[in-house]
Specification:
homotetramer; alpha/beta; Rossmann fold; N-(1-d-carboxylethyl)-l-norvaline Dehydrogenase, domain 2; 2 domains; 6-stranded parallel beta sheet; 3-stranded mixed beta sheet; 9 strands
């Protein structure tokens, strides 16, 4: 299938490469020339603008962009996707952005006869390279079914979350809970150890009790409890604290617009902001445990 | 075996009954006469005081009391266990109290040639009746091995957590994390639904993603998501909000003594205090989701 | 002087009336016809759109609008002020909005040869009617001096806060602190009374000690401590909790954009959101003390 | 008058010295011999124990001790004040402790025919030396009147707060509010400056607006805003962050016992714990602004 792909950063580049490997033809664009050249060397065709990608007879067009303003600009601005796309093209935005922007853009796309899905991912650059991402998808069921086999080349868990914007809602709700759980595990482990229990013993008890969670049994932030997690390698790699800060910003923004209290979510956002300002934003997000160091 | 049992409330009474069923002889005491009579009718022998229980040739003596001051009084006060116990008796306190008191009492017991374990439980009155409690046990490994077969008549998960007091540490660390996770799930589910996603769909996504936790996949607080949880029956039964408030009080007290920050733990304690003062303390603790109701 | 005035709501209408009383000629606009008719009956001339107001040879043009999107639309949209204004007109926006929007609009105004001040107010409808508002003004010193005598007809405290946007910055920083102080007083008074001290005695001590603040000595939220404050009349009138919630939303948004932690500010925003969702948003903001009611 | 004085630390020593200067006879005790010798050199008589002080025909006995357990021990333990005091002696405890202990000790004193006042102070070592402390006094009005002229030799503001324990209640309520206000000012000033306003300008606006408080107008934490405050000398001297942490511990403990929510109070306690653990506990408490440093 001929597919457009816009946004070739740390996540987008390996995703695009997986589509090439699966035999798809790609027409690509990025403002960073170097990123375009690398993927062109692997067989993709470069286009001069988002609208040029959209106008090049692609059946499907995937975008992977850093934030809401980028998505607005690439879909709705000058030389944008909507300026070039032909009716019938399926648009799939994999960026993590706020649900309101996702719905606005999908609304404008529909007004031009175009279908659109929001499909943010989880799994990080590791998942992007291995083709094991999770896609949380919002939009029409028929469009979801059309997209699924293509998304399956880049991920292994493709979930339909309901109408337009719901992919973003699912991602931000999950990630807000993840941040809260991670800080909760950091506090509980630090407290337990300060009170005299061995970290591995405590983790073992929590993991078979009602405190069990992904942050305790799969990604424990306490050094030495698990192998092969960022805590065992000085918090290098993984999902950066600044990325979690970004997602918490989206979640608390969305909560504000919805008039919904998120007491622990807002506190988690503050903790990550403080941690980032202390110079640790590039560490894995489980490094937040450093805020809870003993006296 | 001849076993002493002091404290025959909602938890203690069914625990004692399970020991009787297993063929043990029981010598019992409680300040509530009625509670003593009921268990005496089932075959236990009543004693006149904690020291009388301790003095009646029991090999093991189990206590299940409401709070730290009760434990101090029953073990260390007038007519107390330590006043009556003979060297060699194994003392097992199943109360949920602060680790410092647990260690103080164990220290005083040791000074009198007595071994002591702290063994707080989780599982609620349902677990106490069914004999499926979890015991988190602190104390000497040899004493743990001696106690294990007896505890196994009242529970199915018997975990050694290390030295004296560590049973309490494990319980309060786990329960603090549980409270944080529960509020996190309450916030994430409420936010997601306010933003337009279906509650069951969102729970399904969280439960297969990094937000997964016991509070989302086993005890979800959002009404209608799961059957057979308190959320499906107006939050009646289960683990009361006031009990969670008590455990959060112990956890934040212990954190203060240890000089350990617990930012979300303290916020959770405040939310449960507020919720209790609004008149909901007897509801299951997952009812905390009511604080996050939409506008 | 001939002055334009756009936005004739609860705040704008009495402000406009004070300008008329001072002998100024007014050209006015509001989307609510009824509001326009009332002020026209008092001597103002109605115009058909913001651009029509701007085009009618006014020397100065004042706006008082509910939120950032309204300001963008009235200044930058179709039939907007910038579409009609002649070079040399001094634009003064008295709305409370985020500093970034204030700066964006001032930037666009400057590009068209127009001077602009942001001049949000405090003092409520009472201050608007009595002409005793405080104006916090951002923009060029020369423009500030030009505006001052006109603003002085509507307020008694006219403060220059620096460059464009700084009026908004001052207001949101002050009001965030106000919300924190008010909740702090609510907690301290409620705690003291619960522990057995008389409310008036406690307020007296705080007001001569280091806890002293406007929320304790001028606007005490505890019923019966002061006369003539909302707490003495069931929290009717004053500055509504929903307005405080709006300002806290602006403050936490601005903090997020600036990458600045505001731990208590974010917690205060959450408390007001929760309070508003419990149905109390129209009460005075000091009614937040109801969240801290004893058990 | 012949007065007993127990506890000659940083606060107690200058207080005792002021009583000597005023012509009172002092009988003193401290576990630190060196402290006793210094004050003996200034004219006081040393006694061998708290009970010996109490037994030496003093009309009044003042204590200034570090914490609740010390107060219990000195008043109620072996060789304690109550063991030696004669009926009619007026006991005055100036320590900052929890209200429950204050009331317990006063109750035991009364049972022995002794009157007791709790009289915690504010004003720091500077106030102790200058004799300008504030005394917050709980106890009988008659005893308060008896004590007033003596306290007036050590302080200039002597306030009666009601029955026994209320001096402690007033102090902890005030200091909890102080901590909240200080963090609020730290957040508001840091946010405003990050958004582009000058710190002095912002402080000036806040100090004439509704955000005004002692922490902004008398003890501003932002460097360069005021002279002669700890912020202008690298936060050396003043009221240590660890002392504020202690008072917040007492306030949140008392809130827990009273079943009273203190959401911002608990958050403030956590911030000071975190700040202390980062190694800053000996700085003035206004140094908490360092937690809010820009990115």
């Amino acid at each position: 299938m001929k597919i457009g792909f816009i946004g070739l950063g740390h996540m987008g580049a390996p995703m695009a490469r997986n589509l090439l490997k699966a035999g798809h033809q790609l027409v690509v664009y990025d403002i960073v020339k170097d990123a375009v050249e690398k993927i062109a060397a692997a067989g993709a065709v470069a286009a001069a603008s988002p609208s040029a990608v959209a106008a090049s007879s692609v059946e499907m067009l995937i975008t992977m962009l850093p934030s809401s303003p980028h998505v607005r600009s690439v879909y709705l601005g000058q030389h944008s996707i909507l300026a070039g796309a032909k009716p019938g093209t399926l648009l799939i935005d994999c960026s993590t952005i706020d649900p309101h922007t996702a719905r606005d853009v999908a609304f404008d796309a529909k007004a031009k006869g175009l279908s659109m899905l929001d499909a943010p991912v989880s799994g990080g650059t590791g998942g992007a390279e291995a083709g094991t991402l999770t896609f949380m998808v919002g939009g029409e069921p028929r469009d979801f079914e059309t997209a699924r086999p293509v998304l399956a080349r880049m991920g292994k868990n493709i979930v339909h979350c309901g109408a337009a914007g719901n992919g973003q809602v699912a991602k931000l709700a999950n990630n807000m809970l993840l941040a809260i759980s991670m800080i909760g595990v950091a506090e509980a482990m630090s407290l337990g150890v300060a009170l005299g229990i061995d970290a591995k013993v405590l983790a073992g008890i929590i993991n078979t009790s009602s405190g069990r969670c992904w942050s305790s049994d799969t990604y424990n932030p306490y050094p030495g409890v698990m192998d092969n997690v960022p805590a065992s390698r000085d918090y290098i790699g993984g999902f950066g604290a600044n990325l979690m800060l970004k997602d918490l910003g989206l979640a608390t923004d969305a909560a504000k617009l919805a008039g919904q209290p998120v007491v622990l979510g807002a506190a988690a956002q503050q903790m990550y902001q403080m941690f980032s300002n202390q110079g640790h934003g590039n560490m894995d997000f489980s490094a937040i445990i450093k805020l809870f160091k003993p006296k």
